[in-house]
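Figure S4 source data
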Amino acid sequence: MPKLVDADQRRGELAEAAARVIARSGIDGASLREVAAEAGWTTGALVHYFANKRELLAFTLQASLDRRRAANADRAELPPERALRSMLFDALPTTPETTLHWVVTLAFAGQASSDAELASIQRLAYHDFRAAVIELVSICNAETDAAREAERLIALVDGIALQALFDPGHWTEQRQDAALEAGLVRR
């Protein structure tokens, strides 16, 4: 009897391998051969799940964003202020997983300037993140301009994250947390 294979699981494994290759070698270095080798597969096995590099790249970006969305959905049971803080703190590159997400996102941002599909995927992800932050901000403080505050908080997270990616020795997890905490306190 042939072995049953979960195609979604395999595609996910390949996307994780592609993300690691992208983090190490950039999008140009993420050939089907390199991704297959990273996953411990042959190129022939990889093309059973992805017709070409383009399809693999789009899936890899979407999978990275979906993992972040899933982490945000897990906060539904928290009190709103705690959920907001958790969402923002967890968006920072303080763990190997969140750092990989940021590196992949930035690699794709460069590609998105000339690729409408990748730009659309990233734009929709930011819209979703912004909407979630707006919702939590409005629950936490009904008297504030929630959209404006959400944009400020997202810009704060993005700024901290970029600095941390380029200077990780200086921007430790503790420093990132402290900078975000300082930005959360309105003067």
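Figure S5 source data
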Amino acid sequence: MTQWNLRQFMGKTALHLLTEQITSCRQCARLVAWREQVAREKRAAFREEDYWGRPVPGFGDPQARVVVCGLAPAAHGGNRTGRIFTGDRSGDWLYAALHRAGFANQPHSRHRGDGLRLTDCYITACVRCAPPANRPTTTERDNCLPYLVQELRLLERARVVVCLGAFAWDGALRALRQLGFTAKRKPRFGHGAEAAVGPFTFLGCYHPSQQNTFTGRLTQPMLDAVLRRARTLVNGRRK
């Protein structure tokens, strides 16, 4: 086994171990109670399905240069399917855009066994359990932060972080601070915002929530432009 292949193998193994640690976490009592209640009661449309009902790990290419960071799993999306941004309208928007940008082999993500593969992209979130009203507390955010720190440490090739919303922007900045990377000034979130933080480039994007997509605050061309910029950055081309 070559040195490069060995590093790839070790990276995959470390991420697998981290996934096991994440999915067994019960640190936040409020989130544990809520995710399990949702998994028991279910939404009527999914009443025949077995809900995941556990923390949701990151997903994607261990050799990714682009990391997409969201807020938390949706109660009837990732909390149901066990894969981040899978089985909800936000995921429909995100994975279709990733497919158009060449990061995904198919434009949809419906369940863990649907054949979806990501290339040069890894998707994660600041909080791993579905929170009530989609609003985690600061304590819950901080309890989950070490998982994001470890992911960014293990994704050795990552150089671009696409932050879906201000919560993800702030959480990813906190994670990089723990890795020893800071900006000269704390960069402000905005759609299309760009900031250098150590060896990383942060890109801001409005979250593909229905609140944003239904109102036109986020359009497909806007999301596509951010992902094209991510591709340009990792390929080393200028604007």
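Strands lie at 59-60, 66-70, 121-125, 160-164, 194-197, 200-205. Residues 13 and 188 are 35 Å apart (CA to CA).
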